[in-house]
Design a protein that fits this description.
alpha/beta; single chain
Length: about 260
Protein backbone atom coordinates (compact mmCIF):
# COMPACT_ATOMS: atom_id res chain seq x y z
CA UNK A 1 0.00 0.00 0.00
CA UNK A 2 1.39 3.36 -1.06
CA UNK A 3 1.93 5.81 1.82
CA UNK A 4 2.82 9.49 1.66
CA UNK A 5 3.56 12.12 4.25
CA UNK A 6 5.05 15.58 3.82
CA UNK A 7 6.45 17.89 6.42
CA UNK A 8 6.73 19.71 8.53
CA UNK A 9 7.68 22.00 5.63
CA UNK A 10 8.75 25.61 6.16
CA UNK A 11 9.52 28.11 3.42
CA UNK A 12 10.44 31.79 3.26
CA UNK A 13 10.68 34.23 0.38
CA UNK A 14 13.24 36.73 1.59
CA UNK A 15 12.14 37.86 5.05
CA UNK A 16 8.57 36.69 4.59
CA UNK A 17 7.76 33.20 5.85
CA UNK A 18 5.02 31.70 3.66
CA UNK A 19 4.83 28.14 5.04
CA UNK A 20 4.92 27.54 8.79
CA UNK A 21 5.71 23.87 9.46
CA UNK A 22 2.93 22.62 7.18
CA UNK A 23 2.50 18.86 7.29
CA UNK A 24 0.10 16.27 6.01
CA UNK A 25 -1.25 13.29 7.85
CA UNK A 26 -0.20 9.87 6.52
CA UNK A 27 -2.05 9.61 3.19
CA UNK A 28 -2.59 6.18 1.64
CA UNK A 29 -2.91 4.97 -1.92
CA UNK A 30 -6.37 5.13 -3.42
CA UNK A 31 -7.31 8.35 -1.62
CA UNK A 32 -7.78 11.97 -2.68
CA UNK A 33 -6.93 14.89 -0.40
CA UNK A 34 -7.94 18.49 -1.11
CA UNK A 35 -5.85 21.51 -0.16
CA UNK A 36 -8.33 24.25 0.74
CA UNK A 37 -8.10 27.82 1.94
CA UNK A 38 -8.52 31.45 0.84
CA UNK A 39 -6.33 33.16 -1.73
CA UNK A 40 -2.79 33.57 -0.43
CA UNK A 41 -3.12 30.83 2.18
CA UNK A 42 -0.18 28.80 0.83
CA UNK A 43 -2.03 25.97 -0.96
CA UNK A 44 -0.20 26.24 -4.28
CA UNK A 45 3.09 27.03 -2.58
CA UNK A 46 2.84 23.88 -0.49
CA UNK A 47 2.00 21.78 -3.56
CA UNK A 48 4.93 23.26 -5.49
CA UNK A 49 7.22 22.48 -2.58
CA UNK A 50 6.06 18.86 -2.54
CA UNK A 51 6.61 18.68 -6.31
CA UNK A 52 10.12 20.09 -5.94
CA UNK A 53 9.42 23.18 -8.07
CA UNK A 54 10.56 25.26 -5.10
CA UNK A 55 12.70 24.05 -2.24
CA UNK A 56 11.34 23.97 1.30
CA UNK A 57 12.90 22.78 4.54
CA UNK A 58 11.58 19.40 5.61
CA UNK A 59 11.02 15.79 4.51
CA UNK A 60 8.68 14.60 1.74
CA UNK A 61 8.25 10.85 2.24
CA UNK A 62 6.77 8.39 -0.25
CA UNK A 63 6.97 4.67 0.63
CA UNK A 64 10.03 5.29 2.78
CA UNK A 65 11.81 7.40 0.13
CA UNK A 66 12.56 11.07 0.76
CA UNK A 67 11.55 12.81 -2.46
CA UNK A 68 13.21 16.00 -1.25
CA UNK A 69 16.60 14.33 -1.75
CA UNK A 70 15.91 13.09 -5.28
CA UNK A 71 16.88 14.69 -8.57
CA UNK A 72 14.14 15.90 -10.89
CA UNK A 73 14.63 12.85 -13.11
CA UNK A 74 14.39 10.41 -10.20
CA UNK A 75 11.31 12.10 -8.77
CA UNK A 76 9.55 11.97 -12.17
CA UNK A 77 9.38 8.16 -11.84
CA UNK A 78 7.11 8.44 -8.82
CA UNK A 79 5.47 11.87 -8.93
CA UNK A 80 3.47 13.83 -11.53
CA UNK A 81 2.69 17.53 -11.07
CA UNK A 82 0.20 19.63 -13.03
CA UNK A 83 0.57 23.37 -12.41
CA UNK A 84 -2.30 25.82 -12.49
CA UNK A 85 -0.74 27.77 -15.36
CA UNK A 86 0.14 25.45 -18.23
CA UNK A 87 3.02 26.25 -20.62
CA UNK A 88 2.24 27.83 -24.00
CA UNK A 89 0.93 25.38 -26.63
CA UNK A 90 3.54 23.64 -28.76
CA UNK A 91 3.35 22.58 -32.42
CA UNK A 92 2.45 19.01 -31.56
CA UNK A 93 -0.71 16.92 -31.56
CA UNK A 94 -2.50 15.84 -28.40
CA UNK A 95 -1.31 12.25 -28.83
CA UNK A 96 2.29 13.42 -29.27
CA UNK A 97 2.37 15.54 -26.11
CA UNK A 98 0.78 12.80 -23.99
CA UNK A 99 3.25 10.23 -25.38
CA UNK A 100 6.11 12.64 -24.63
CA UNK A 101 4.96 12.92 -21.02
CA UNK A 102 4.96 9.13 -20.77
CA UNK A 103 8.54 8.96 -22.05
CA UNK A 104 9.77 11.74 -19.75
CA UNK A 105 8.27 9.92 -16.78
CA UNK A 106 10.48 6.92 -17.48
CA UNK A 107 7.49 4.62 -17.97
CA UNK A 108 7.73 4.04 -21.71
CA UNK A 109 7.32 0.35 -22.52
CA UNK A 110 7.17 0.09 -26.31
CA UNK A 111 5.09 1.89 -28.94
CA UNK A 112 2.07 -0.43 -28.90
CA UNK A 113 1.71 -0.51 -25.09
CA UNK A 114 2.30 3.23 -24.90
CA UNK A 115 -0.47 4.00 -27.40
CA UNK A 116 -2.86 1.76 -25.47
CA UNK A 117 -2.13 3.73 -22.30
CA UNK A 118 -2.60 7.06 -24.07
CA UNK A 119 -5.90 5.97 -25.63
CA UNK A 120 -7.16 4.64 -22.29
CA UNK A 121 -6.42 7.92 -20.48
CA UNK A 122 -7.96 10.09 -23.20
CA UNK A 123 -11.06 7.89 -23.17
CA UNK A 124 -11.38 8.02 -19.37
CA UNK A 125 -11.40 11.83 -19.54
CA UNK A 126 -13.89 11.92 -22.40
CA UNK A 127 -11.48 13.64 -24.80
CA UNK A 128 -10.63 10.89 -27.30
CA UNK A 129 -12.07 13.14 -30.02
CA UNK A 130 -9.17 15.54 -29.43
CA UNK A 131 -6.46 12.92 -30.02
CA UNK A 132 -5.34 14.22 -33.43
CA UNK A 133 -5.93 17.91 -32.73
CA UNK A 134 -2.98 20.28 -32.58
CA UNK A 135 -2.31 21.83 -29.18
CA UNK A 136 -2.43 25.34 -30.63
CA UNK A 137 -6.02 24.77 -31.76
CA UNK A 138 -7.37 23.95 -28.29
CA UNK A 139 -9.22 26.17 -25.85
CA UNK A 140 -7.85 26.84 -22.38
CA UNK A 141 -10.19 24.27 -20.84
CA UNK A 142 -9.24 21.64 -23.42
CA UNK A 143 -5.54 22.27 -22.81
CA UNK A 144 -6.15 21.80 -19.11
CA UNK A 145 -7.73 18.42 -19.84
CA UNK A 146 -4.66 17.45 -21.88
CA UNK A 147 -2.43 18.52 -19.01
CA UNK A 148 -4.37 16.18 -16.76
CA UNK A 149 -3.98 13.37 -19.31
CA UNK A 150 -0.21 13.98 -19.33
CA UNK A 151 -0.12 13.51 -15.58
CA UNK A 152 -2.36 10.43 -15.46
CA UNK A 153 -0.69 8.55 -18.32
CA UNK A 154 2.47 8.16 -16.25
CA UNK A 155 0.61 6.19 -13.54
CA UNK A 156 2.45 8.02 -10.74
CA UNK A 157 2.35 6.95 -7.13
CA UNK A 158 1.86 10.62 -6.17
CA UNK A 159 -0.36 12.90 -8.27
CA UNK A 160 -0.22 16.65 -7.57
CA UNK A 161 -2.81 18.91 -9.20
CA UNK A 162 -3.03 22.69 -8.76
CA UNK A 163 -6.61 23.84 -9.39
CA UNK A 164 -7.32 21.43 -12.28
CA UNK A 165 -10.91 22.71 -12.55
CA UNK A 166 -10.16 26.42 -12.92
CA UNK A 167 -10.71 26.63 -16.71
CA UNK A 168 -13.45 24.01 -16.99
CA UNK A 169 -17.20 24.39 -17.35
CA UNK A 170 -19.46 22.62 -14.80
CA UNK A 171 -19.92 19.52 -16.96
CA UNK A 172 -16.21 18.90 -17.35
CA UNK A 173 -15.62 19.66 -13.68
CA UNK A 174 -17.79 16.64 -12.84
CA UNK A 175 -16.13 14.52 -15.54
CA UNK A 176 -12.64 15.38 -14.28
CA UNK A 177 -13.38 14.81 -10.60
CA UNK A 178 -15.14 11.51 -11.30
CA UNK A 179 -12.21 10.39 -13.48
CA UNK A 180 -9.69 11.45 -10.84
CA UNK A 181 -11.53 9.55 -8.13
CA UNK A 182 -11.75 6.44 -10.29
CA UNK A 183 -8.12 6.58 -11.47
CA UNK A 184 -6.84 7.27 -7.96
CA UNK A 185 -8.43 4.05 -6.72
CA UNK A 186 -7.55 1.93 -9.77
CA UNK A 187 -3.89 3.03 -9.78
CA UNK A 188 -3.54 3.08 -5.98
CA UNK A 189 -2.28 6.67 -6.17
CA UNK A 190 -2.10 9.33 -3.50
CA UNK A 191 -3.74 12.38 -5.09
CA UNK A 192 -3.25 15.87 -3.66
CA UNK A 193 -5.40 18.51 -5.35
CA UNK A 194 -5.73 22.24 -4.75
CA UNK A 195 -9.40 23.20 -5.01
CA UNK A 196 -10.91 26.66 -5.07
CA UNK A 197 -14.40 25.50 -4.12
CA UNK A 198 -14.92 23.69 -0.78
CA UNK A 199 -18.25 22.37 -2.09
CA UNK A 200 -16.44 20.31 -4.73
CA UNK A 201 -14.16 18.89 -2.06
CA UNK A 202 -17.12 17.98 0.12
CA UNK A 203 -18.66 15.91 -2.68
CA UNK A 204 -15.57 14.33 -4.22
CA UNK A 205 -12.53 13.84 -1.96
CA UNK A 206 -11.74 11.67 1.05
CA UNK A 207 -9.85 14.12 3.25
CA UNK A 208 -8.88 17.77 3.32
CA UNK A 209 -6.35 20.23 4.72
CA UNK A 210 -7.51 23.78 5.43
CA UNK A 211 -4.74 26.39 5.25
CA UNK A 212 -4.72 30.02 6.29
CA UNK A 213 -1.70 32.37 6.22
CA UNK A 214 0.67 29.49 5.56
CA UNK A 215 -0.55 27.34 8.45
CA UNK A 216 -2.76 24.27 8.68
CA UNK A 217 -5.80 25.16 10.77
CA UNK A 218 -7.61 21.83 10.27
CA UNK A 219 -6.97 18.46 8.65
CA UNK A 220 -8.82 15.17 8.46
CA UNK A 221 -11.94 13.62 6.93
CA UNK A 222 -13.44 16.17 4.55
CA UNK A 223 -16.83 16.29 6.34
CA UNK A 224 -14.99 17.30 9.52
CA UNK A 225 -13.08 20.08 7.73
CA UNK A 226 -15.74 21.77 5.59
CA UNK A 227 -17.94 22.92 8.47
CA UNK A 228 -19.58 26.29 9.25
CA UNK A 229 -17.08 26.92 12.05
CA UNK A 230 -13.96 26.20 10.00
CA UNK A 231 -15.35 28.04 6.96
CA UNK A 232 -15.83 31.11 9.17
CA UNK A 233 -12.27 30.88 10.50
CA UNK A 234 -10.64 30.24 7.12
CA UNK A 235 -12.70 32.30 4.68
CA UNK A 236 -14.52 34.75 6.94
CA UNK A 237 -17.95 33.68 5.68
CA UNK A 238 -21.20 32.43 7.20
CA UNK A 239 -21.95 29.07 5.62
CA UNK A 240 -24.42 26.22 5.96
CA UNK A 241 -23.89 22.59 5.01
CA UNK A 242 -26.99 21.19 3.33
CA UNK A 243 -28.00 17.97 1.56
CA UNK A 244 -29.01 17.85 -2.09
CA UNK A 245 -31.68 15.65 -3.63
CA UNK A 246 -29.07 12.91 -4.10
CA UNK A 247 -28.04 13.08 -0.45
CA UNK A 248 -24.69 14.68 -1.21
CA UNK A 249 -23.51 17.54 0.99
CA UNK A 250 -23.48 21.09 -0.37
CA UNK A 251 -22.10 24.39 0.89
CA UNK A 252 -24.37 27.44 1.03
CA UNK A 253 -22.62 30.76 1.75
CA UNK A 254 -24.99 33.32 3.27
CA UNK A 255 -22.68 36.25 3.91
CA UNK A 256 -19.47 37.44 5.53
CA UNK A 257 -18.57 37.19 9.18
Amino acid sequence: MTEFQAGPLSLSFGRKQVLHEVRTEVLRGGTMTALLGPNGSGKSTFLRAVAGVIRANGPIMLDGMNLARMSVQEKARYCAYMPQLLPPPVRMSVVEVVLLSLRLGGNYAGASAAMERVDAVLASLGIMHLADAMMGELSGGQRQMIGLAQALVRSPKLLLLDEPLSALDPRYQFIVMDALKRETVLRNMVTLVVLHDPAVALRQVDSAMMLRTGRVIAAGVVEDIVTPEIMAEAYGVRARIERGSDGAAMVSVEGVV
